[in-house]
TrEMBL record:
<dbReference type="InterPro" id="IPR050300">
    <property type="entry name" value="GDXG_lipolytic_enzyme"/>
</dbReference>
<dbReference type="GO" id="GO:0016787">
    <property type="term" value="F:hydrolase activity"/>
</dbReference>
<dbReference type="InterPro" id="IPR029058">
    <property type="entry name" value="AB_hydrolase_fold"/>
</dbReference>
<keyword id="KW-0378">Hydrolase</keyword>
<protein>
    <recommendedName>
        <fullName>Alpha/beta hydrolase fold-3 domain-containing protein</fullName>
    </recommendedName>
</protein>
<feature type="domain" description="Alpha/beta hydrolase fold-3">
    <location>
        <begin position="33"/>
        <end position="260"/>
    </location>
</feature>
<dbReference type="Pfam" id="PF07859">
    <property type="entry name" value="Abhydrolase_3"/>
</dbReference>
<dbReference type="InterPro" id="IPR013094">
    <property type="entry name" value="AB_hydrolase_3"/>
</dbReference>
Length: 287
């Protein structure tokens, strides 16, 4: 497996980059997974997907393109979405010349907050080259009460006052920050129920960035995965979506934390990725 880095855009002075994972000298990949990382939109890094899954996908004919996006609250959701549209455009413009691929087929793939972005772009930026969407423990609805109320799970941890947390906000846009450096901003936001204020410009924008039932019904084929014991994003988000998206495969694991695929010592993560590959092959053959 080889990794190459590319610059796809700039936001002010901030470079927005992507990493392309592929098999050496193999232009005949079946499709490319364009990947958005999680982190509550406040932290994270594009290359957070465990190597074992990257290799599994590449070995089975699926390239991976992992994408930077500017983080909130230095920018808000409209800017994040605009940058990711640029990333998709870059892929479609450069898949042959720069990446050496034979076809522009792609799937949008996100985990947690990245899955939220996957839902949004699949609904609001549909393109014929997109063959499906992949959501791992994602959500599509910012009006979900769980996101605006103090979280009983996060309130088990020592309280972080909003002003203390807000000291972590940078004066300029950033696209990468580790969980260790900035998790407390997300933690505080969930403890006090003000997390969404970091993402949107006004309360009414919560609805603007939530998918309607009509949009869910219009989504491309979808693969959803979630843990029944998710302490961060209620599992109902994926259960409801699996009933409203017409062409859907839903994998639910038991008793594991939110990012159930993060612990590679557990077999469940690998099993879900193997199911994902079966689904990807099927989605392409029926397209």
């Amino acid at each position: 497996m080889i990794k190459q880095n590319f610059l796809y855009s700039k936001l002010d002075e901030l470079d927005l980059s992507m990493t392309f994972y592929s098999n050496q000298n193999d232009s005949s990949a079946k499709a490319t997974l364009i990947y958005f990382h999680g982190g509550g939109l406040l932290y994270g890094t594009r290359d957070d997907l465990p190597e074992i899954y990257c290799e599994l996908l590449v070995e089975n004919g699926y390239n991976l393109l992992t994408v930077d996006y500017p983080l909130a609250p230095e920018v808000k959701l409209p800017t994040i979405v605009a940058c990711l549209k640029e990333a998709i455009d870059w892929f479609l413009k450069n898949y042959q010349t720069t990446l050496g691929l034979e076809n522009p087929n792609y799937f949008l793939f996100g985990r947690s907050a990245g899955a939220f972005l996957t839902y949004l772009l699949s609904a609001r930026y549909p393109l014929p080259e997109q063959k499906g969407l992949i959501s791992f423990y994602g959500y599509y609805d910012l009006t979900n009460p769980a996101f605006s109320q103090p979280s009983s799970y996060y309130n088990q941890f020592p309280k972080i006052a909003p002003l203390t947390a807000q000291a972590l906000i940078q004066p300029k846009p950033i696209a990468e920050v580790s969980i260790n450096e900035r998790f407390s901003l997300y933690l505080s936001g969930r403890q006090f129920g003000n997390w969404l204020s970091y993402l949107v410009n006004s309360p009414s924008e919560k609805e603007t960035f939530s998918l309607t039932d009509t949009e869910l019904a219009g989504l491309p084929p979808a693969f959803l995965a979630h843990s029944s014991a998710d302490q961060d994003v209620p599992v109902e988000a994926s259960r409801i979506a699996s009933n409203k998206i017409p062409n859907v495969t839903y994998e639910e694991v038991e008793k594991l934390p939110h990012d159930f695929d993060g612990d590679i010592t557990k077999s469940e993560g690998l099993e879900v990725y193997q199911a994902l590959i079966v689904w990807l092959d099927k989605a392409l053959s029926s397209n």
